[in-house]
Amino acid sequence: MQHPLVSLIGAPTDIGAGARGASMGPEALRVANIGPILESHGVDVVDRGNLSGPANPWQPPVNGYRHLPEVVAWNRLVHEAVHAELALGRLPILLGGDHCLGLGSISAVARHCRETGKKLRVLWLDAHADFNTNELTPSGNIHGMPVACLCGHGPRELIEIGGQVPAIHPRWIRQIGIRSVDPGEKRFVHQAGLEVFDMRYIDEMGMRHAMELALATLDANTHLHVSFDVDFLDPDIAPGVGTTVPGGPTYREAQLCMEMIADTGRLGSLDVVELNPALDLRNKTAELAVDLIESLFGKSTLMRA
């Protein structure tokens, strides 16, 4: 298999989060050697450095949105950076930053797919559905809203970033590992018809079955985007996140998830978000995230047929 050309894009902001510290995520991933480790697998890696956007003013919500102007600015920067790498035929890895940035990243991927006639599949690996709106949100933190915004439910200046509203259709998303959904959000997820493999499903059916369904019907004309929120993982193995929810995938379940994605050969873009080194222990969560990303790019125990 041909090795991809990978571009690392740092987005050092916690603008959409409820805790400070995700702004340090990109550097922690670099300290955990994300570039050299991918290069050791024959991947061509270019680190584009960090985007530079507005500081976090740490203000209360306005009309149910916290830091909306700053969130818009950061997502526009991310959108343009990710789209530029895709246009060069490279695989962008967004080093977040909080998960509000998935809006800029995935809207760029959707735009690229429209321009190249490709289908899009989004795997959303997360403890949370991130399908809140300003009416539903208990906090106003926009990192709980990117999937809703991508599906056209949100403020005009956010939902229009990709140039088309909605940027994506709910049918294109598979959510995996979900175990914390706000009451109003539950109804909204159900109404929208999101395909969700929550932890109960994974407990009952196993990660393998969930991933087989999540990856079904991928073909050579499908761009696969993985949006990996580090709080997807069980906090026992990944404490360095601001929104821990007990009962996430184990190390082996997470590895299987990543290896099955790698086996498709379709990975086209990746977000790694919500890593918060301020809450971590000796960078162990960053190292685990890099270990899992390594598996996305083909690290496995044995040669597989």
UniProtKB/TrEMBL annotation:
Pathway: Nitrogen metabolism; urea cycle; L-ornithine and urea from L-arginine: step 1/1. Mn(2+) 2 binds at residue 126. GO terms for cellular component: cytoplasm. Its cofactor is Mn(2+). GO terms for biological process: arginine metabolic process. Coiled coil: none annotated. The keyword Transmembrane does not apply. PANTHER family: ARGINASE. Belongs to the arginase family. This is Arginase. It comes from Ideonella aquatica. The gene is rocF.
